[in-house]
Amino acid sequence: MAEMNEQLEKLAYEYQLLQAQAQLLAQNLELLTLGRNEFQAVKETLEELKKVEDEKPEILVPIGAGSFLRARIEDKENAIVSVGAGYAIEKNLDDAVTYLDARIKEYDDAIAKTQEGLKKLESQLGELAQKAQRIQQEQAMGFSVKK
């Protein structure tokens, strides 16, 4: 009986560890999805800008708290895109879209790997729960079933 309690405690500890890992992966997945969506929005904006016929189109520039300023785009052929670590470079719109596509693919790959890891953890959590349930059933019945 003491051995079964020890097994249950061990399973409970493993379960908590896996659950914490799963929670971290779920949070990471959410951050990756937000990042990917931001890059996608920028890409779509640049693609739409290429279709605009006005030489200096008017836009609304967000300044915070749901407020905007009217502005004109002086150079609609180029965009300044972030390349990470606080650096940005100027690219023509086609190159900027190509760069953003590559970044979106990186995010998609990271999202897929994170989802795969989360599925594995969920599977392990299910297995641990089943083991614990079997041990509890054996305890309730007062005997152990040999495998």
Automatic annotation (TrEMBL):
Coiled coil segments of this chain: 1-28, 104-138
Main location: cytoplasm
Ranges that cross the membrane: none
Pfam assignment, any one: Prefoldin
Domain of life of the native organism: Archaea
GO cellular component: cytoplasm; prefoldin complex
Keywords for the protein's UniProt record, in alphabetical order: Chaperone, Coiled coil, Cytoplasm
GO molecular function, one term: unfolded protein binding
Location within or outside the cell: Cytoplasm
GO terms classed as biological process: protein folding
Entry-linked NCBIfam families: prefoldin subunit alpha (TIGR00293)
Functional note: Molecular chaperone capable of stabilizing a range of proteins. Seems to fulfill an ATP-independent, HSP70-like function in archaeal de novo protein folding.
Family affiliation: Belongs to the prefoldin alpha subunit family. Belongs to the prefoldin subunit alpha family.
Subunit structure: Heterohexamer of two alpha and four beta subunits.
Protein name (record): Prefoldin subunit alpha
Organism from which the protein derives: Thermococcus siculi
